[in-house]
Amino acid sequence: MEYEKGYKRVEDSLTEWAYCLQYKDINGFGRLYGGRLMEMIDEVAGIAAIRHCGGNVITAAVDNLQFKKGVYLNEIIVVIARLTYVGRTSMDVRVDTYVEAKDTGERRPINRAYFTEVCVDDEGNPVPVKYGLLCENESQRAEALFAEKKRAMRKERTSI
Description:
The protein is of the alpha+beta class.
């Protein structure tokens, strides 16, 4: 695949993963452990970032993690990750999680989170991301603008 002017499209790193919940994933209330879901979405966010940068990544931050609905044994969850912003060494990844109805395939949202992934070398040191992000529609441009605002707010909070 050839990339024009050092950019990749949002779709180039889009990652979708499906999983049927098992007993090992369920807490004492009969629902999916929140920590297990966090593990799953962290993995999918990392894969999307690896697909974009073509190298190693580490998770630096998680923003706006929202648990909207419970998920139960034998339900199918679908996790979808897409890049929303690329900086010098970091990438912002939006991760949406759904429960998929077995009979109709209809999906209802259960979780959304934003991950900051940092491109690193073999020693774990940050390195520049090789490709910028080509936002091809208004929705993608709005996500990129939202990511820039979040990054500015995070920098402001950490400088105090």
